[in-house]
Design brief:
- It contains 12 helices and 17 strands.
- It is an alpha/beta fold.
- The chain folds into 2 domains: 258 residues, Alpha-Beta Barrel (TIM Barrel), CATH 3.20.20.140; 54 residues, DNA polymerase, domain 1.
- The strands form 4 sheets. Strands 1, 2, 3, 4, 5, 6, 7, 8, 11, 12 and 15 form an 11-stranded mixed sheet that branches. Strands 9-10 form a two-stranded parallel sheet.
- The longest helix is centred in the N-terminal third of the chain and has 12 residues.
- It is globular.
- The N and C termini lie far apart (45 Å).
- 50% of the residues are buried.
- The model has no long low-confidence stretch (mean pLDDT 92).
């Protein structure tokens, strides 16, 4: 790590296959094996710290063993590993668990080493249908999972908190993270692609928690579509835990900033009616279709939060880092694969293009129009048509027109 420089972190990456070609996360790209994910994260995206959330699968554990035994990844005293290319790696496990009122939610367990990973894998093996696949339904509850992670030297967080179907607060009447955790501590919640800190801070029950912005990448191209800038002294699990100790962190470690999609780009931001194939444009909350009266549309994250919070003002707690809206290069119209290759050849990584390159330098490489587009994306000046019902929002050409 460079002293004083933030560590860019994406702590929710999936693998589609093991190194020998066996399936892991069935909805993830087959191109995503451990080696290629690590190479992409460091060499193309410019990340400093990642977590792969399928690490309990026996085939992935073998891939980790292979890299460690070959000297391509070395354990850190504070937990986690450092690759030969300087990338911090934390083994993690995403699971689905019952979460009150007949619903379910996803949790992520972050673990320090191969020994703890093997212990959690054994614990899961008798509680899931198929231990070789990722994100299995576990016969357990959030409090027990958090306690299991803590017993193995790790910790648990809630994944994509607000999204319908598998987000803890993605349905009406869902209990808060604190209520589900009981005496077991969940230090943070992952917001998901359709929410940001301002939206989440409408709920006072989340004031004591850190907010994570991660990609939940199922393809190499979506790695680092959301990420965080962290202030750490080492790329280890222990340092990460300190950074997540409340909204402002602990002992000088903290989240400096969250970088994520404008929530309107997320695929569940607004309510969507399956019958009308329409994303709501009316003022939230929209809980039934205003056109056809459908009482069970896919309720959007914005609408669900507004239903839960009412007209309560946004009151972020002290220490809450800024949330910077950002559009990935791949989502910018006119920035296609050929242009991205030219940018990477000139500036090295996507982090360099998004954070460090001056607009004049960008213009010298890809022309003034594309450089201006990237700069406007940085400043949050692009026109976006909101997503909903599993359909991503998109950047559209100005002038903006109502959906």
């Amino acid at each position: 790590m460079n002293p004083g420089a933030p560590a860019f972190a994406d702590l929710h990456l999936h693998l589609g296959r093991t190194g020998d070609g066996r399936p892991v996360k069935v909805t993830a790209s087959g191109a995503m094996d451990l080696s290629r994910v690590l190479e992409t994260a460091r060499g193309i995206k410019g990340l400093d710290l990642v977590a792969v959330v399928d690490a309990a699968a026996p085939g992935v554990r073998r891939d980790i063993d292979f890299l460690v035994d070959r000297g391509e990844m070395a354990p850190l005293a504070g937990g986690g590993y450092l690759t030969s290319g300087g990338l911090g790696f934390i083994p993690a496990v995403e699971v689905e668990v019952g979460a009150g009122s007949g619903g379910s939610a996803h949790l992520i367990l972050y673990l320090p080493d191969r020994t703890s990973l093997e212990a959690v894998s054994r614990w899961l093996a008798v509680r899931v249908a198929n231990p070789h696949l990722s994100t299995q339904r576990v016969r357990s509850d959030p409090a027990e999972l958090a306690a299991v992670a803590a017993a193995e030297g790790g910790f648990a967080v809630v994944a994509h908190l607000f999204t319908p179907y598998k987000g803890l607060l993605g349905r009406p009447g869902a209990p808060s993270p604190a209520a589900l955790a009981g005496d077991s501590y969940l230090p943070a919640v992952e917001l998901g692609l359709s929410a940001d800190s301002e939206l989440a801070d409408r709920l006072p029950e989340l004031a004591s928690l850190s907010f994570l912005s991660n990609s939940d990448a199922h393809s190499l191209g979506t790695v680092a579509r959301e990420y965080m800038a962290l202030e750490l002294e080492e790329l280890s699990l222990h340092e990460l835990r300190l950074a997540l100790d409340g909204p402002g962190g602990s002992q000088g470690r903290r989240i400096r900033a969250n970088y994520g999609l404008d929530p309107r780009l997320g695929k569940y931001h607004r309510t969507w009616c399956q019958h009308c194939a329409r994303t709501a444009g009316e003022s939230p909350p929209i809980l039934e279709c205003p056109l056809c009266g459908n009482p069970e549309p896919v309720v959007g994250v914005l609408d669900r939060v507004m239903e839960r919070s009412g007209s309560a003002p946004v009151r972020p707690p002290a220490g809450r880092p800024p949330y910077v809206h950002q559009v990935p290069l791949a989502d910018l119209p006119g920035i296609g694969p050929a242009t991205r290759r030219v940018l990477l050849e000139a500036f090295g990584t996507e982090m360099a293009v998004l954070h460090r390159a001056e607009e004049a330098d960008l213009a010298g490489v890809v022309g003034e129009d594309r450089a201006n587009l990237i700069a406007r994306a940085r400043r949050g000046e692009l026109c976006i048509r909101p997503g909903g019902g599993g359909h991503y929002g998109r950047v559209v050409k100005n002038p903006c027109r109502p959906a």
